[in-house]
């Protein structure tokens, strides 16, 4: 399904890094820590939620050349948003840290047969309740585990 409105993102890195690696293979490990504000008003950039994640990277190439590659999947329709963010600190082997993704609001999705334009409100439809799946990919192409956010409510009216 084509999205009429793209979702905007901002990434904040908080490095409280450690030199202790997670062990195992070289794929990064992602941990979902929580969500600030689980309700947004629909409309492009009208509101935000903040997703807090932690990562561990055995071989230190999570940034793939100072860029973090993140995929965000909207579970309402399966749309995948591949995101790349420039990140200043260089990681060493066995690094850990936390980051926050500020996700800007988007438009509600209505049944296609209703012909309701994007970002319009219709009192006969309830808010959209959905989650995001998130994973990261390191510089060698190793994909992390996928984490799922708590339920987000997007107010459609």
Fold blueprint:
Blueprint: E1 9-14, E2 29-36, E3 39-41, E4 48-57, E5 67-74, E6 79-86, E7 95-104, E8 128-130, E9 132-137, E10 147-148, E11 152-155
Q: What features would you highlight for this structure?
A:
157 residues, mainly beta, Immunoglobulin-like, 4-stranded antiparallel beta sheet, 11 strands, 0% helix, disordered N terminus
Describe it for me?
- The protein is mostly beta strands and 157 residues long.
- It has a single domain (9-152), classed as Immunoglobulin-like (Sandwich).
- It has strands at residues 9-14, 29-36, 39-41, 48-57, 67-74, 79-86, 95-104, 128-130, 132-137, 147-148, 152-155.
- Strand 5 (67-74) and strand 6 (79-86) form a beta hairpin.
In short:
This protein has 157 residues and is mainly beta. The protein has one domain (9-152): Immunoglobulin-like, CATH 2.60.40.
Identify the CATH architecture: Sandwich
| Head-to-tail CA distance between termini | 22 Å
Q: Any idea of the CATH topology? A: Immunoglobulin-like
Widest sheet, order of strands: 1-7-4-2
Q: What proportion of the residues is helical, as a percent range? A: under 10%
Number of strands: 11
Overall geometry comes to: elongated
Could you say which structural class the secondary elements and strand pairing correspond to?
Answer: mainly beta
Q: Can you write the helix and strand succession as a string?
A: EEEEEEEEEEE
User: Mean of residue pLDDT?
Assistant: 79
């Amino acid at each position: 399904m084509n999205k009429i409105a793209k979702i905007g993102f901002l990434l904040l890195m908080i490095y409280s890094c450690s030199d202790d690696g997670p062990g195992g293979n070289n794929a990064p490990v992602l941990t979902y820590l929580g969500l600030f504000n689980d309700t947004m008003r629909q409309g492009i950039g009208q509101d935000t939620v903040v997703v807090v994640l932690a990562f561990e990277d055995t071989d230190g190439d999570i940034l793939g050349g100072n860029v973090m590659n993140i995929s965000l999947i909207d579970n309402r329709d399966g749309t995948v948003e591949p995101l790349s963010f420039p990140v200043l600190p260089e990681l060493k082997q066995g690094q850990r840290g936390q980051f926050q993704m500020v996700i800007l609001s988007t438009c509600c999705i209505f049944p296609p047969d209703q012909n309701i334009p994007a970002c319009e409100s219709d009192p006969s439809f309830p808010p959209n309740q959905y989650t995001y799946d998130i994973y990261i990919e390191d510089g060698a192409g190793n994909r992390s585990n996928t984490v799922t956010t708590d339920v987000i409510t997007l107010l459609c009216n």
